[in-house]
Amino acid sequence: MGAVIDVNTVDIRDATPFPWPIQTPLHFIRAVTGVNTVVDFDGATHLHRALHVCDSRVIPHLIALGADVNAVDPIGYTPLHRAILLLSSGDLSMADVLPMLGITQLIRAGADVNTVDLLGYTPLHAAIARGRSGIIGQLIRAGADVNKADALSRTPLHLAILCNYPEIVLQLIEAGADVNIVGRKGATPLHWAVKRNNREAVRWLLTAGANVYLRTNNGQTALDMTTLESDSEIKVLLARR
After folding, report:
1. Is 93 strand, coil or helix?
2. Could you tell me the pTM of the whole model?
């Protein structure tokens, strides 16, 4: 009989003998005794690594074997965080298909959609940063908190404005986001939209009941934040309230 390989042994890089699930036959994965073992120097589990290499074939098998869908790596990323951050920004491409499939598999398996990384980013924050309205919808339907702030006091609504995604601003408002929530330095989403000169976001926020009289920590209303370069329609919209 040949030598027995301990699949959980690590080398000097803290990697196991089989750190890449995409190269690992399914019959071998079924024999893995530590499906949640950290398999690489960056703190990734088998599930993290399967998502990193976009192997959607292996993911359901790992989950069926008991892989922890909420396992956290050293920077606080769960498999769901990692899958979302693999998505490109801008137009969808073929490269996005497998990460999106992985995201769906994780959510169906009960992944925590409100877990945070070291910067306080939830999967929803990550999806907004990538501009992925479809994934945002999935997360919201799965119970994502649309008002949860990150470590810099940025709620999903603040972040959507910062990233200049007015259509996501509307999506979050329709999902119940608080349009008067206060973030860093006392700024509301309306303050941010005015500062970013985002006319469409300003219109959505005002329609949803944003309070134009709320002041930042230094006493500025949204109208106070307009400048000579500000969109003239934004000034009119604010002045009419």
Report:
1. coil
2. 0.82
Angle, CA of 109, 172 and 88, to the nearest 5°: 65
* Residue in the block written with tokens 């307009």: 226
If asked whether residues 26 and 129 sit together in one domain, one would say yes
Q: 184: closest CA among 216, 226, 222, 145?
A: 216
SS3 67: coil
69, 109 contact by CB (below 8 A): yes
Q: Is 184 exposed, middle or buried (0-12, 13-18, 19+ CB in 10 A)?
A: middle
What's the token pair of residue 32? 């893995």
Q: Domain count for the chain, please give it.
A: 2
Query: Which of 112, 145, 178 corresponds to the end of one domain?
Result: 145
Mean pLDDT of 28-54: 66
Burial class (CB in 10 A: 0-12, 13-18, 19+), 203: middle
DSSP 44: -
Q: Give me the pLDDT at residue 2, please.
A: 42
With beta carbons less than 8 A apart as the criterion, state whether 210 and 190 touch. yes
Q: How far apart are the first and last CA of the chain?
A: 82
